[in-house]
Amino acid sequence: MRNCQLSGVITGNLLLRYTANLVYSLNGGVRIGRDIGGAGDKPNGAQGILTIEPGVVIFGASGADFLLIERGSQIFAEGTATRPIVFTSRTNMEGTAGDNAIGQWGGLVILGRAPIHTCIGSGITGGSVNCESQVEGAGGFYGGATPTDNSGRLRYVQVRYPGFEVSTNNELNGITFAGVGSGTFAENIQVHNSSDDGIEWFGGRVNHRYVVITGADDDSLDTDFGYRGNIQFGLVYQRSGGGDRMIEAETTGFDLRSPRSRPTFANISFIGRRAPNGLLFRGGTDFNVWNSVIQKDQGACVQFADAFTITTDSANDKVGPPNLRSVFMACAGGAANGSGGVTTQQVTDILSETGRNNVLTGTSTLTGTWFPGANELAVTPFNANGANSFFTNTSYIGAFSGSSDTWYNGWTCGLGGSTPACTVAPTPIQ
Prior knowledge:
The mean pLDDT is 96. The protein is mainly beta. Helix content is 5%, strand content 35%. A hairpin with a 6-residue loop joins strand 10 (133-134) and strand 11. The protein has one domain. The chain has helices spanning 90-93, 344-351, 374-377, 384-387; strands spanning 2-10, 12-16, 22-32, 48-52, 57-60, 66-69, 74-78, 85-89, 107-111, 133-134, 141-142, 152-160, 164-167, 170-172, 175-178, 185-192, 199-202, 207-214, 221-224, 230-237, 247-249, 264-272, 279-281, 288-296, 302-305, 323-331, 336-339. The longest helix has 8 residues, at 344-351. This is Lipoprotein.
């Protein structure tokens, strides 16, 4: 098998063609473009455009190998349901990555010019063109005042065995979306066995459909710095041997600058195996979770931390407690947990408010690990489209309508059915 090596800074247009018995590798941090700044006028900035054909395989050999898309540059990685694009590790290519392998290369980082609220320097207004921050792990800058910024298209993409701790609290995730705008298309994405978070968002507005996070060793989905995007249809499945929260949501420790984090996730099935509580909301974040299922072998389903998280403060754009509606909860540690000035009873009372239609003490009837059974199907869904036009109304909660609804088949790994084991090397052979 032939190997084409990528390295350094790439400007202009680069096409990675699909060719039988050809793979691509990352030699260190590969950067597409040079940062153009929040206003698009940064000296020496230059656009790069990376296009990847369906079926292409790209691998890294260590945590120092990552792919980064700079502000103003784009990636067009569009696989198909039968020929996904796969980012993975050298050990996976060699067939030696085990079921619990993690952190074997850096990951994918996309930086954009959409609003964030945590800025380098003092006296800078959050969400302004001059509000920028430096991304964890890779050193690039992101942020600006273009909510619809377009960093390209991702579709039918796997990211296997990524993640790397550069230093304490300075880590590469499976995929990092930092200041990425709503003009970016990102659907049908799987991150498998990341050593850090599966996906982390630092501000921005990018939206997603059909997201699969399997085996993340830290948080599966992590939102921060004023992220206000939407996700519909997702599966989060933890390994028994690793994993922290399935959602960790905050808005950077009580930072009162706008935009405040306010994501909306709908039709997500959360299958937890680890002791920490399943969904953690803290630091004053706003958040919507609609039409979803939470099942955990250990720990509580939902934790609210910090009194400001459950506060309504219109002067600081704080709309109130996290808003869960039509969520079925079946967790060994109960539905609710409170900390940092929030009591467990307060969390229970919020989740139980009239009109929320949550099931707090459900008995799981899931079949085949994540497909809904009678109890989950008995929950009346919330009218998501009526509240947010991004969403499609469904007649069911969770990611799947039933056991025949296998939208993940063909383009993911490790989920049974027609999906290959993730440990099997993804070889581009016609």
